[in-house]
Amino acid sequence: MSTKTKPSRSYVLGGDLTIDRLGYGAMQLTGTGVFGETSDRVKAIKVLQEAVASGVNFIDTAEAYGPKLNESLIADALHPYKNGVVIATKGGFNRPGPNQWIPNGDPSYIKSNIDGSLQRLKTDTIDLWQLHRIDPNYPVEETLKPVAEAVKAGKIRHVGLSEVNVEQIERAEKVVPIVSVQNLYNLGNRQWEEVVDYTTERGIAFIPWYPLASGPQTLADKIGKIAQAHNATIAQIALAWLLKRAGNILLIPGTSSVQHLHENIKAGEIQLSDEEFESLSK
């Protein structure tokens, strides 16, 4: 597990989009179960606007958040988008109700997801479109065909995947170039180590979802001591560990609080020593 003493805060996504590695995930700005409208729309808009005002230039959303409502919220809050702000969205889930997530890789559904996202985000080109899940009922080649067509048509700039293994990434890349992978990964759950290493070697961004989880209780004392030494919270140390883990890791911690937003952003200022990093990694 390689580390850098001073991780860079910037990353060039897809070879042409320079972004700050500490972004913002908008999933929490929805109703209970990631379904329906957010309970306080005015507050949600303020959080999004404050994120961009504070230097965040990578915002992650999805057609499935709401569904659809989260993308419209982002457009209402941020459009016209500030120069350099990158909006990433996802498609490929049916949402019949709260906490219900059903993969749908039907090419016609994927095409409608892309066209709908373009309209809701009020943009001609989606900076990063990600396949939310691979649907086992459809060959990924079929699912990604309308995505490749959208790239050729200029509707999508770059393409990413979510919750995939190395074999699936390589299979998808035969259809369309893949610039990012968004998998569950954090200090306490490192089931995708192989994918992190693979994407690092390939120059593909790795975007951990659920990045704030700090791990099992067995890590609590260790993290607590390091957090105290840096005058930081446990969550900030969890984010700092990810930033140091690999230079291609982009963080999208989510929150519905401006105060918590600023706490997350400050995590980028924490420089863990190699010894602290190794201690947390054991």
From TrEMBL:
Keyword Metal-binding included in the entry's annotation: no
CDD domains found in the cross-reference section: AKR_AKR13B1
SUPFAM superfamilies according to UniProt: NAD(P)-linked oxidoreductase (SSF51430)
Keywords in alphabetical order: Oxidoreductase
Keyword Repeat (UniProt): no
Chain ranges of the NADP-dependent oxidoreductase domain: 21-280
Residues spanning the signal sequence: none
Superkingdom of origin: Bacteria
Matches recorded under PANTHER family: AFLATOXIN B1 ALDEHYDE REDUCTASE (PTHR43625), ALDO-KETO REDUCTASE YAKC [NADP(+)] (PTHR43625:SF40)
Protein name as catalogued: Aldo/keto reductase
